[in-house]
Design a protein that fits this description.
About 40% of the residues lie in helices and about 20% in strands. With about 280 residues, the protein is α/β, with parallel strands linked by helices. The model has no long low-confidence stretch (mean pLDDT about 95). It binds NADP nicotinamide-adenine-dinucleotide phosphate.
Length: about 280
Amino acid sequence: MAIEASYKLSGVMGWPVAHSRSPVIHNHWIAHHGLKGAYVLLPVQPENLEQALRALPVLGFAGCNLTIPHKVEALRLVDRVDHLAARIGAINTIVVEADQSLTGRNTDAFGYIESLRDAQPHWEADAGPAVVIGAGGAARAVIVSLIDQGAREIRLTNRSWAKAHDMAQEFGAPVNAIAWEDRHDALAGAALLVNTTNQGMQGEAPLDLRLDQLSLDALVSDIIYVPMETPLLSAARRHGNDTVNGLGMLLNQARPAFEAWFGVSPGITPDLLRQVRATF
Ligand code: NAP
């Protein structure tokens, strides 16, 4: 009975989900901290999402992560959503509360900012304009994170104009929508450039962006982590800029989720990095 009470399950719910690196990260922490439990893959089709979420407390789960395509739909299905996740409009973490209810959170914004600070400990959001390329789900977490860190100007550009325009309207100042055709010139004077599109991901074309206007002081980040160095990051490195890949965001978004489920604040150690990198 004592063993059962201390054994905790968590996992990642998605469809497809087999590619997820989250089990490697969380199971490493479970072992490292000598905890009893497991983090498992939860392949759940969209039409079964509600049933699967309601089963979490019954099956003894402390919670779970959500990935494609469930992050937005799950927000509607849980019992409460914290303020940050509501602003982002998506949840990536569910915590099963003591009364068996489900709380939805979003740790992607935290993960993104921590990844920048891991690369540049003195990074400040108000150092200068940020250019965000892409206006999909991940862009929402990145934009909210930059606003909350005090960014004073965010230039948002997206292939489909309406999404960038609507997002700028929704978040208000400091977000300004910039036409896709003007994205190259939008880099002038920027302190941060971030790619949140899927362009440059394995199997996709490189992001179509010229860096000639970009200052050498600008930090260039790409939230893609397969490959770890996208064509954008190689071009930025050749141009002379500091770069940050998406692996840091992935690792750091996992930290608050693990702490919520297992009560231990985990770290990103060289050993963990080695294990995760070995999966690529
Ligand atoms: P999403 O909601 O589907 O958004 C995709 C974005 O890419 C949209 O802005 C879309 O523009 C743009 N795009 C697609 N094809 C394009 C093209 N040919 N040219 C220009 N733009 C194009 O996807 P998401 O969930 O935001 O994910 C985006 C990326 O972030 C993925 O690569 C994902 O792996 C990565 N990600 C990483 C982390 C991490 O922890 N590191 C977390 C979340 C996501 P339109 O609006 O015009 O279609």
